[in-house]
Amino acid sequence: MALYVSPGFSRAADAHLRLALMFKARRHWTIAAVHFKRARLAPHQDATFTRLELSFHAAHLLEAKGLRKAARDAYERLLKEPQLSSSLKADVCRQLGWLYHRCVTLGEPAARARAAIWCLKRAVDAEPDSGAGLYLLGRCFAAQGKVHDAFIAYRNSVEKSEGNADTWCSIGVLYQQQNQPMDALQAYICAVQLDKGHSAAWTNLGSLYESCQMPKDAFACYTNGGAAATAWALRQRLEFLKAHLAHAPMPSVTGKRRQLPAIEEAWNLPISAEMSSRAPKSAPPPYPGKRPEEPPPLTHHQLQTLQYLQKNTHNLSPQQQTLMQQLLSQYRLAQAARTRAVTKSEGTATGGDSAESLAEDLLKRFSDTQPDIKKEPICTETPSNATCSNEAVLGCRQPVVKLEPLKTDPLKPVTFHIGMNSKQILDTCSENAGPPTSWSVLGDGCGPPSPPPVPPPRLTPEQLAPPAPFVYVESKRDAFSPQLQDFCLKHPIAVVRGLTAALKLDLGLFSTKTLVEAWPDHAVEVRTQLMQSADENWDPTGRRRVWACASHRSHTTVRKYAQYQAGSFQESLREERERGGAAPTAGGGALSDSDGRESGSGPVKRRRASRMLRFGTNVDLSDERKWRPQLTELQKLPAFARVASAANMLSHVGHVILGMNTVQLYMKVPGSRTPGHQENNNFCSININIGPGDCEWFGVPDAYWGGVRDLCERHGLSYLHGSWWPDPEELRAHGVPVYRFTQRPGDLVWVNAGCVHWVQATGWCNNIAWNVGPLTARQYSLALERYEWNKVQNFKSIVPMVHLTWNLARNIRVSDPRLHRAMRTCLLQTLRGAAGTLGAVRARNVPVRFHGRARGEASHYCGACEREVWHALLVREHERRHVVHCLACARRASPSLAGFLCLEEHHMDELAQVYDAFTLHRPAPPPPGPASVGPSLGAPLGPPLGPPLASILHAPQTPLPPLPD
Hints:
Mean pLDDT: 80
Number of helices: 36
Protein name: JmjC domain-containing protein
Cofactor: Fe(2+)
GO cellular component, one term: MLL3/4 complex
Helix content: 40-55%
Strand content: 5-15%
Oligomer: single chain
Domain JmjC: 626-789
Radius of gyration: 33 Å
């Protein structure tokens, strides 16, 4: 929100960095990479992190994504940097060493072991006071069977970092492997006393008790394991121990002496001198359901005192030095506890081989990774009037770049309204264009859009599962009737059956056979997915229902995918014959579940039958030279459904937007999934099933998209960037209605503006799809709102709404007052923004040149923030290529705009003429006599209109019948 409200924010690099780290912690890899890129492009004079530190985190992101070789190469490139600090060098070496240790794809085991030891020793040398490298070095020695070396490394690690529960847990493992159970017990107790939620230590302690024939204590430890107790094998062990304890005999006084003290006794036993000096006793062990207490954070007064002491670190008495160290230690402990809680809540494992979370996810802790924190100028106030925030304690440097405000006069408030003509607007802007925060296309004073809550009132069970809006077209007259377009525009999603047959569309032009014969080497993007029924979504282990929909991308050709598609069908035929069942038809696979009933398959059954499938997606049919017969055939459709039409906003963009104003084809086998989404910038979409199989669709009305987003966030998924497959029952329980229907071969599915939808093939089929933009106020307003919300979310709008609006103003006459008002507001605000940008540029003596626009030239986006840049392009050379910047990013890169050149795409006189000419059109009343329909705004263009579809369409107040099976 800070980046949206103030694009010129001087700490934008830090904002992007923190967003990137948070998204990385939540495993949203794509958007994390976007923010790392934007943080690198922002200026770093006043940033908390250097560019090298940023490169380290970007490399770690590659590792977290599973791109281990790319991560290794990135780490090794960093180690060659001459300006690498010792602290960062230690981080890089630790991470690289641990990567060699655990990644089998990086070479032979012996070579990897040598590389890991070498890297970790370099990390220890680079940062001798840190115990992290020593701990990982001990892990490597232990894995190689070098017990003595491992123990020395662990012991030295404890000397450096006394409170590391991971180290004590690993020491316990070493003792347990050497058959020293009492020493192992004491080490595990140290670990769990330091971190009462340490799953690995509790689990290992349970294993130790079980090996010593003490099932009651083992059960208590396993239960205390927290997150680890949810593991499949551990759950089975807990069930076994529970059953065993239920039938176990009462303990006898004369029984065999126990090898270890019980867990309650062990917690309070005196520990050996070496261990007791490192692990002070604390509260009794937590019992199931009881959460351990975390260290309290510093109070405001303590924070102020710490800031003052750090500021005067060279003039402190010994008592003040001691106090500063105590406060700093307490602050870091509280921060670490808070980070640990967040990490566990996000589901990151800390047990077993994942006890190395230190190396698994090196999200820099701002509280404890600034080695020169005491040398930083923190705050100039005394403790009595200090007002610094916690940020000062985190070691942030003082801002160096000061951006002066753009030319504004607070004594002359600026007001703009759509009744002004272009001269009035430009004259006002010459004196005061207002701050850039007031240039929103939604209008001055309008805050950023936000997801709507689930609208009241609460729907009934019948309303939460509405029947799919359905219409049958019998003739060409019906197809071109205006009632058909009205029907589609009135429903969130609709099925039009019989349209392709009535218009005699040759769908065979889009069949796999025809595609192979035409262009066999044409590119196909492939998504590898887990095969499962449409109303279920399981994690890769097949044990837990989730929303995350895993999908791995690769590429192939039409010919190769056709072979896979045919082979998949033949394999299904063979399996059916072997089972003795009826052979499947191409129209329906084994996963067809269109009646909406739950399949009832449990986890064990699913795990046995699960397999992977390959979905051929995003086949580009935009090249008219290659696909002329196919694209010509689609011209038979009514105007509101055509790829290109005067009544389609996207036809006025003036350049290609792949998959939106061009056709894309999808090649499917049963189970192929298109995860949940809204169309780009909320535009409508057309989808035709070529066949021969069916597809199953789910849809949510646009008014409820905020409810879907809430549940995505609850499941830890990014609504815009993530891949998710919703649970219909969970949505309905949240008050969100869900349509569900089957799309048969030849059926056209109309997805209205903003409708959330997801699709799964139930048979072998191809689909074609594209977007359309009806010239309505609702479509335009929803597109513009999403355009602004995408800015808040740092998500690129692939429809350049400003460029589109100006093209629409040139090309069409608008008679709808609501549409005219929305477009006029956008024109006003962008004209104002263009004038303000040019004023700021000229005030800094930046040369302005006319550039113009070539025919079909794509719209421009900022190379830093990816927002649309219209009219005034600020260009600077970067890495031997010229990169376009918006004004905010250009000023962040250089406050004086030094090195920038401004290119104008239009003449201001031309823009003024377009703006003044865009007035509300008032059509003349029709002459008396028979009604005639002309090409007015939003009406389909085509042959003479037929009679009303009264026999086909249901009146709005009449409930629509369910789609026939």
